[in-house]
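Pilot study result, target chain (372 residues):
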Amino acid sequence: MVKCASCGSTDIRYSIEQRSLACANCRSKWNEPALESQVDLTSGIDSLQGTSMTSTARDIAIEQATVTLKCGGCGAEVVINTAETAQVRCHWCRSYLSASSRIPNGAVPDAVAPFIVPREHAIETIRAFVDARKFFANPKFKREFQPENVVGVYLPYFVFDGNASAMVTGQGEIQTARWTEKRGENSHVTYYAADVYNVGRSFKMAVDDLLLESSAERGNLQDPSQTNNIINAILPFDVKGALRYNPNYLRGFTSERRDVNVSQLSGVVTDKLLSIARHKADGLVGQYNRGVRWDTEQVDLHGSRWVTVYLPIWLYSYYQKEKGLKHFVAVNGQNGNVMGSVPLNMPVLALVTFLIFVIGTVVGVLLFLMMA
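Predicted structure:
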């Protein structure tokens, strides 16, 4: 039982307004310690070797989903389905029981980043996002749009720190001349001359707090029925401010369970590191004013550190049955960033596209006649 230190009550929940856990009995307020005060999330990245992970980040244990708990208040036995929740209320004495220590890896994280943005603010943010796109929105969606149905969700993530090195090679060009030649009565062609160089860059990378989805469904961006990339568009999250996991932070919200192991993310990690390496390398070749084409890319991961965390999202979802698509409007529960997917009214979109084409053609013809 997770009890209030002041009065012993288990009726505890998180208050967004007060940004703390609050006891419903004695009104005491407190928070769990910051994860960073107990787990090193910053230092030593450039010296990491091998794979280091917390106990909750280890491979998911295959265990029975139902666990029987003995209530510390009245002694009754209570069954909890750990696939659905990490907390249950005793049906006899109404005390809250937590199964955190009995749940297999994957069900609970190391830390929680609690909600900061109030639900009312999220509702207005979602309403404004959709209103700005209503002209192109599907009529059925506009009729059925009810932002009051927004729900608070904690999504599971891995926090990855990595010690890596990268090497890229390619060809870069430096422009040496530029000239224009006339082709026909009203046509001109511009030419460039450039020196071509073989270019290579190698460097070390210390990657800090890279967020990786630990839900297989959320991480599957290839599923045409999903619009999960919306979640990535509302990053970043302040994971260094995340607090040690306590099931009471989740009361009143829903949450998803981690179902991916670290070993399953090797390909994702490589892709992320390559993207970081390209960005870093592009910043090291500014003298090649005609650009650089990278032909070979290589990243070596020497060491990594893995921590699990729940991140807060306000979510409005809409299922477009006729196309089998799930649309989301998501608000970052920490900073209020918003992104979403709204089903389109294709006839209106086609009409606007046609009008733009016609107007563009007419303007082009008029300009041509004026120059003739």
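One observation from the pilot: The helical segments are 119-131, 139-144, 216-219, 229-233, 266-282, 346-371. A full batch analysis is planned for the follow-on phase.
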